Amino acid sequence: MDPKEVLDELKTILVSRLKFEPRRAADMTLETTLPKGVEGSIGLDSLDFIELSIAIEERFGILMDESQDLTKHFLSFDTLAHFITARTEAR
Amino acid sequence: MARVAVTGVGVVTGAVTGGREQIRAFLASSGAPALSVPSSALGGLIDETEARRLSRICQLSVAAARIALADAGLGPGAGLGLVIGAEFGDLRSTIAFVDGYLHRGPGGLSALLFPNTVMNTMAAATAIAVTARELSLTLNAPTVAGELAIARAAAAVRAGRADAVLAGGVDEFDSALAELLAEGGAPSERRGEGAGFVLLESLDSAEARGARVLGEIAGVAWRALRARPYGVGRGAASRAVAAALDEAGATSGEVGRVWVSASGDGPRDRWEQAILEEALRPARPPQTALASRAGRHAGLGALAVAAAALDEVSRGPAVVHAIARGGTHVALVVRRAPVE
Amino acid sequence: MRRIAVSGLGVVSPFGTGVKAYWNGLSAGACAIRPVTLIETEGFRCRIAAEVPDGFGGSLRRSRADRLALAAAREALEDAGLSRVERAEAALAVGAVGGGMLEAEAWYWERFRGRRPPSRPTPRSMLPFSHAEALGNALGLEGPRETLVMACSSGAASLALAADLIADGVVATALAGGVDALTRICFMGFNALKLLCPEPCRPFDRDRRGMSIGEGAAFVVLEELGRARARGARIYATLAGHGMTTDAYHVTSPHPEGEGMVRAMAAALESGRIAPAAVGYVNAHGTATPQNDRIEARAIHEVFGPGRLLVSSTKSMIGHTMAAAGALEAVATILALVHEVVPPTANLETPDPDVAFDCVPRVAREAAVEYAISNSFGFGGQNVTLLFGRA
């Protein structure tokens, strides 16, 4: 799966599980940043990230190890897509 | 002991949404009953992130709290407390949370929904939305949780434990809940939904800041009457009405109107009549049951207190009276402004 | 200002039925966290919890939570020796979250699987207020009745609010406490939030990985001090003050600097007019999540300064008992004052260098303490601190 395809899957998750408006999700790109407080981000907080990681585990069949600091992978759709791609290929 | 002023009100119900002006217009009209809150009622009161993250019942609560604060002429404030009554809480999110698991297993569980399964979720959302950083309390009670919450909050202001408190309640009602209640053998009655808050503060501080005082909660009491869980009791001797009148320095003969909790649940409504007859005898002040127009729900307590304060027809103090199956019993004595 | 005495105790805990079993477990530093038997845990990362062993009685037509509550409330009332008339006047404050959800879930699960459900739950048996209704009716309590839902601080809040009713002169006595039975929703939810540890939790340990869930009930009889003395009641401790605050920060995360926790502890000291130096023991909220313990330790440090204090977590032994936690931990704090023994933090092997306190690892400590506080913090940023004084 390339990052673009992963992005589309993530957008679906954002609409179905994080309740973003579909038109809002449509505007998101790989460059879009995620965490609340970061300039131009979609404003996700800690609870959003847990929801997102459960959804990623379910959709991509990978395990997110919460004992490790995953912050750097959750910076933008780009970092997250690369993280997911690397994990799915490693299986 | 401080005197307790009502300085703001906000309601979001099927029958009326708004502050004192809208409630005054509602009381002067005689519209048809309206039990569900239309989605348009929340327009402009909820921001984009809240709309995404907050469940509907939390949105109802936040919207009513914002209206009440604006009505009171107060900004969101650090000195604010919150007392919320609810009967069912966020049952809709609870069912959605469980269904996620049953349909999809552990991966179907939603971290976002889980906090909503605890009934203080409305208080949590509302405290954040209006920056209420003092006590925030959620009281769970059958049918009269809103009246109970206001009595509780009034006692806290009276004792000087709280400066300003948003007090009221919120509940949601839909066909799924109606079905659950019917399956569980609950009596049929006129149920509604919505949220309502009054802003209570000490009369001294209200006057000091030049607040527009709606009225005064001059006495409150809440007790349990003997009854089986969800049953109606046989006894009609009420210590609550007498205690509330006593605290207000009022007599039963002076009471100008009783805002009753009647909602079409025959046995309970008859019990309420017996309690009032015994408590106020020989007086028989006129009664109004707001549930006939807005349905019974935890937001109704604030509407009743505001209605009692805005009532320009009756003379003398009003009693807001509420009795639930199981025996939870609340009486509030409300005086209209101008408060002497 | 009327002073408040604690004149009756009742407990049903994962150590068994009764205050004695509870104290035996606590003072031994035992851990009651074991594989879950009450509900299915297949597919969950964490599959352990602290369940209450059989023996607490009650009709099986009642919910498990109602039966836990009834057993604990009866013990407290009998312990206090209140007359029938005194009971009829007494207030009842119950901290609750799950209600009769365990039974409602069983029904819903069966219905989902297309089987004929066992018995139909009703709102009166499912909602949190069901316990207060059951207790009030069964025990003849006709004073003010309140069910407080404040997430994990519910049990502590019930004691604080009942104390207010006595202080205001509304009632002379009150039965206050908290209850929760294990539920699927709670177990699944904390699993989903990834807050549960697969092994028994280890509060304040450097290697802590999350909490363990528990269940139980605890009730205390509160009474105006002069009146308790006049009738010759056994006085365990005084409830010398309390503080209740809200973070208004985030729905599940505490304020990163523990600002609301600090205000709750400070308010408890202020309401009791007690100097921080008079407090010798903190029964911590101590959930063993990486976040809570660090922030709580920081907040305790801000209020009390470094060192000196003993700090321990009851949750290391009986798990996080949710709405019961604040009440069970209040009783643990009271018993520590009575016995002059501070219960330990079980499973604590490697102290976290970020926690600047003696967290009483594994073995109880003899210590005669004048004042002790019990902290409870819940979702929604709800902070409650109770301050107890030696009788």
At CATH level 3, the topology of chain A is Non-ribosomal Peptide Synthetase Peptidyl Carrier Protein, Chain A
What Rg of chain B is obtained from the alpha carbons, in whole angstroms? 19 Å
> What is the CATH architecture annotation of chain A?
Orthogonal Bundle
Provide the number of structural domains of chain B: 2
Instruction: Write out the CATH superfamily name of chain A.
Output: ACP-like
| CATH architecture title of the largest domain in chain B | 3-Layer(aba) Sandwich
Give the termini separation of chain A.
13 Å
Name of the CATH first level of the largest domain in chain B: Alpha Beta
Average the pLDDT over all residues of chain B and give the rounded result: 95
The total count of helices of chain A amounts to 4
Count of DSSP strands of chain A: 0
Which class do the helix and strand fractions of chain B yield? Answer: alpha/beta
Largest sheet of chain A: none
Low-pLDDT parts of chain A are: none
- Low-confidence segments of chain B: none
What's the multimeric state? heterotrimer
Principal-axes shape call of chain A: globular
Can you offer a commentary on this structure?
- The complex is a heterotrimer of chains A (91), B (340) and C (391).
- Chain A is mostly helical and 91 residues long.
- Chain A has one domain (3-90): Non-ribosomal Peptide Synthetase Peptidyl Carrier Protein, Chain A.
- Chain A has four helices and no strands.
- Chain A is globular and about 35 Å long.
- Helices cover 36% and strands 21% of the residues of chain B.
- Chain B is built from twelve helices and eleven strands.
- Chain B has helices spanning 20-28, 48-53, 56-71, 91-104, 121-130, 145-158, 175-183, 203-208, 239-248, 266-280, 291-294, 300-310, and strands at 4-13, 17-18, 80-86, 136-140, 164-171, 194-202, 215-224, 257-260, 287-289, 318-323, 328-336.
- In chain B, strands 1, 2, 3, 4, 5, 6, 7, 8, 9, 10 and 11 form an eleven-stranded mixed sheet that branches.
- With 391 residues, chain C is α/β, with parallel strands linked by helices.
- Chain C has one domain (4-376): 3-Layer(aba) Sandwich (Peroxisomal Thiolase, Chain A, domain 1), CATH 3.40.47.
- In chain C, the strands form three sheets. In chain C, strands 1, 2, 5, 6, 7, 9, 10, 11, 12, 15 and 16 form an eleven-stranded mixed sheet that branches.
- The relative contact order of chain C is 0.19.
- At the A-B interface, helix 3 of A face helix 2 of B.
